[in-house]
Amino acid sequence: MTVVFTVTLAILAAAGLLTMLRLLRGPTTLDRITALDVLVVLIVCGGAVYVAINQDGSNIPLVAAVALIGFVGSATAARLVERGERHR
Amino acid sequence: MTVTDVVTAVLLLGGALSCLLGALGLVRFPDVPARLQAATKPQTLGLLLILVGTAIRLEFESAATLLLVVAFQIITAPVISQIVGRSAYRAGTMRRDDLVVDELADPMARSDLPGPARDDPSS
Q1: How far apart are CA A84 and CA A22, in angstroms?
Q2: What is the spatial distance between Cα A1 and Cα A64, in angstroms, rounded to a whole number?
Q3: Which residue of B has its CA nearest to A25?
Q4: Which terminal CB of chain A, N or C, has fewer other CB atoms within 10 Å?
Q5: Torsion-angle region of residue B111: left (phi > 0), alpha (psi -120 to 50) or beta?
Q6: Residues from chain A contacting residue B61 (CB–CB below 8 Å)
Q7: Which helix (H) or strand (E) is A45 found in, with range?
Q8: Is the ipTM of this complex over 0.90?
Q9: Closest chain A CA to residue B82
Q10: Using a CB-CB distance cutoff of 8 angstroms, which residues of chain B are in contact with residue A30?
């Protein structure tokens, strides 16, 4: 089973690298917000795989909290950008 | 490798591949709304598969909490894409040539909401 976990984490890491590419290259701020939101989902996936590896539910609140915070952050940032983006 | 191990392996790998496809789409797509498609749908599916694959291995209470996270992600992903998509539309960062139909143009023109439909897109 450890092979499965390492392969899963490797694929998630590759997805994280691709998201970093979009985060760095994104022309507008909205691309960066979307990329950060994807990064948060990847972190939640990584946390879930960690919970699967150890088979104990002690750090499930971590997974839930990161998912909640990711949403609030993205929504607030997107609202903030909406006003400022028009002048560029 | 018991049955639950095989099922967990399939779910975890499927979820990770779905996340990878989403990230790939995020890089390759031309403009913000297209990237939003890639950022929300496959990621949510990947998260769902991984969390279900994890929930199988745990006892019922923690599995229920994990499924709560899945439900939460399913609810919030559309909200985020709606907000970011609206900001993208109003900020004019969308490529107009790809648009087949632009339903938001008329209501924007009538209402006092500022939007690219009325002033020229600044992108």
Answers
A1: 21
A2: 25
A3: B27
A4: C
A5: beta
A6: 57
A7: helix A29-54
A8: no
A9: A75
A10: 32, 84, 87-88, 91, 93
Structural Rg of chain A based on CA atoms: 16
Structural domain boundaries of chain B?
Answer: 3-110
Return the structure tokens found at A37. Answer: 């939101």
Which of B12, B32, B68 is opposite residue A30, by nearest beta carbon?
B32
pTM, rounded to two decimals? 0.83
Per-residue confidence in pLDDT tens, chain B, 123 aa: 788 889 999 999 999 999 999 999 988 888 788 888 888 889 999 999 999 999 888 888 888 888 888 898 899 888 888 888 888 877 766 666 667 776 766 666 655 555 554 444 444
In this complex, the residue of A8, A16, A33 whose CB is nearest that of residue B84 is A33
